[in-house]
Amino acid sequence: MKIKILHLYPDLLNLYGDKGNIECMRKRLIWRGIDAEVIEYTSDDTGFDLADVDIVFIGGGSDREQKIVCGKLLEHKEAIKNYVEDNGTLVAVCGGYQLLGKYYKLENETIDGLDILDIYTEQGKKRLIGNIVLESDFISEKIVGFENHGGRTYIGNHTPLGKVIYGYGNDEKSAAEGVVYKNVVATYLHGPLLPKNPALCDYILSNAVKRRNPDFEGLLELDDSLENTANQYIVNRFKK
Ligand code: GLN
What we know:
Number of helices: 7
Order of helices and strands: EHEEHHEHEEEEEEEEHHH
Bound molecules: glutamine
Oligomer: single chain
Strand order of the largest sheet: 2-1-3-4-12-11
Radius of gyration: 17 Å
Largest sheet: 6 strands, mixed
Helix content: 25-40%
């Protein structure tokens, strides 16, 4: 079996090394004997086909880069929507998360989103920057990470990825962070999110592998003792 990972716009949206998430997914598949191929789709490329793609990844970036990407991705709106509704796995980080919504309202302009999730984002006064820890119904371990965003995202009736136990999250007030919808995981947690949270990586990989092979019985266990020690260290550091 081979899992195809499509990395959208690594040349524009790769803040804090979001690309580390791609490497983490690839390695954790290969360690289990599952072949993995990464396709990078940059702003110079002219089209992509989601027909045999298993995982789509969109990272985060500045408002300027995000605007360029939004403009380009609107051409693929229907294809991405169909892929999501057909249970395609999509991981979106920060700017990538915001652009899945209806719009991102800045001080002087509004950037149209892909309208794949029923959410919207508005720029707030101060940036929300710092470490963040979540409790999630999707995995038993806590999720640790780093956030840096000016936008506040309002997710309506969507299910959040987790509840904030330290940090800001979607909108600084609701204690919700991210969105999980079908096989979409969208989050403000930047940079090497998946290496820090192997259980979340495996949740994402399982969804993708199951869709490719409905007879799949679950991922082989890996020795994550080092990763879990690092994760636990951060959880303890920010425990209230
Ligand atoms: N430009 C967006 C914001 O500031 C997203 C930032 C990011 O991806 N770090 O809200």
